[in-house]
Amino acid sequence: MRREWEIGKESRMLRTICALFLASLIAFASAVTAQEVRPPEGAQEPRAETGGAQTLEDILARERGQLVEGSFRSDNIGGNIDATQFAPALGPLGVASDSDIWRRLRFDKAQVTLSSDGAAAAPASSVTIQDAGMWWLDFRRGPLATYGGYLLLGTLALLALFLLIRGRIRIDGEKTGRKITRFKAVERFGHWLTAGSFILLGITGLISLFGRMGLIPLIGKEAFAPLAQAGKWVHNNVAWAFMLGLVMIFAMWVIENIPNRHDLKWLAVGGGLFSKNVHPPARKFNAGQKIIFWAVIVLGVSISISGLALLFPFQLPMFAKTFVILNDTGLPQWLGFGALPETLTPHQEMQLAQLWHAIVAFVFMAIILAHIYLGSIGMEGAFDAMGSGEVEEQWAREHHGLWIEELKSEGGTSRATPAE
Amino acid sequence: MKTMLLAFACIAVIAVGAWYGLHQAGFSIQEVTTRSSVRLN
């Protein structure tokens, strides 16, 4: 025991010495660095030659895309002299210069009094300048449009490649000629209400994002203007049909989309999508359809909330509140983003809502493209489920074997002729 | 297919209804946040 204690003691001492050694190294390096960067005696303050204003190097650094620490401007707002001793000789600006006033407005440090009554004033009206709009604009027409476009084109290319390699997924067994009711009229109504409105929202959303760079060069500004106006009207008002459809499909199908053990078997063989004569067991909805369902619900709710925030400007700010919650979890810091801003201007809230709305929309559209493909040209017999609501019994047997067994045990609903 | 067409027709009806209803309710940001003293029409 004593020997172990001594080893432990030595180990602790060794660790302490190592720690001290490392600490002294760091301290020495810091001292050297501090000496190296310490300005020589008599050196001028940064930006002394411009009286504290930005220099040519600042401007060039920004043009190179480098971050220039901006407190020398945002803090330079005047007002640190008691104006009362000079008033009224200095006039309405007091001891502040024009530049001070504009910096106060730009960096949201001005006391802005509105001419309209305060209770009815827009939350954003006291913010007269906010330069986060340039970041938003650059991101919107840069990475958002670029990577969003790549995502959609890439998805289409993958689906085309899948069709070339796999071909249309046929009904492997012999068709029976008997039909089974897969979806009732109300279910199909809910589906098409959501689907039709989603397609309209997708197309008009893409016109809104890509119109300036993609359509104006093709059709000109005169033709684009009414198209953009109509697109905006459709986007704003069709959104309500989408939200109603979302509520309908959630209420109708949520129970049957709760994951179960059969989903693992389905996923293990890729649903049989990649090979012939492979038909994993599935109830009314297989694992692939459940993934689509939950993606539609989660993304649909998210895009609806951000859409409402855009439809009712400045009335539904939520990003600052969300960032507070996220910062409390420590996730953004852990991912290396640092703490997210917990105070946002009303305009920044709108800009983030727009970006989030578009990002979710791109992911949503990519998923739905795959859904549309499999529900139409990608799989024989699939469209009937939402077209007439009646599917070939053999199709149902291959893709929803457990569901058809349940139907048969309940009395069966096969019929010899289609219902439509 | 009739159900699909009915749903599409409902989308149009809901859209027009939403537009009419919201404007009757005076929802637009212009109506909500401005006064005649600050907007020239």
Q: Would you kindly provide a written description of the structure presented here, covering whatever features stand out?
A:
The complex is a heterodimer of chains A (420) and B (41). Chain A is mostly helical and 420 residues long. Among the domains of chain A are: 52-62 and 70-108, no CATH class; 132-183 and 254-409, Fumarate Reductase Cytochrome B subunit (Up-down Bundle), CATH 1.20.950. Helices cover 62% and strands 1% of the residues of chain A. Chain A is built from 14 helices and 2 strands. Chain A has helices spanning 2-37, 56-63, 71-74, 98-106, 132-166, 185-253, 261-268, 287-311, 319-329, 331-334, 346-375, 383-387, 393-399, 401-409, and strands spanning 179-181, 390-392. Chain A has a two-stranded antiparallel ribbon with strand order 1-2. In chain A, helix 6 packs across helix 8, helix 8 (287-311) runs antiparallel to helix 11 (346-375) and helix 13 (393-399) packs across helix 14 (401-409). The longest helix of chain A is centred in the middle third of the chain and has 69 residues, at 185-253. The model of chain A is unreliable at 1-43 (pLDDT under 50). By secondary structure, chain B is mainly α. Chain B is 68% helix and 0% strand. Chain B contains 2 helices and no strands. The N and C termini of chain B lie far apart (48 Å). The mean pLDDT of chain B is 82. Chain A binds chain B through residues 115-117, 120-122, 125, 185, 188-193, 196-197, 200, 233-234, 236-241, 244, 312-315, 386-389, 420, and chain B through 1-4, 6-8, 10-11, 14-16, 18-19, 27, 29, 32-35, 37-38.
Walk across the major sheet of chain A and give the strand order: 1-2
DSSP helix count of chain A?
A: 14
What is the mean predicted local confidence, pLDDT of chain A? 82
- How much of the sequence of chain B is in beta strands? under 5%
Characterize the main sheet of chain A.
2 strands, antiparallel
Rg result of chain A: 32 Å
User: What characteristic shape of chain A results from the CA principal axes?
Assistant: elongated
* Shape field of chain B: rod-shaped
Q: Any idea of the CATH class of the domain at 132-183 and 254-409 in chain A?
A: Mainly Alpha
Number of helices of chain B: 2
Element-by-element helix/strand order of chain B: HH
- Beta-strand percentage range of chain A: under 5%
Mean pLDDT of chain B: 82
* CATH architecture group name of the domain at 132-183 and 254-409 in chain A: Up-down Bundle
Q: What is the number of E strands of chain B?
A: 0
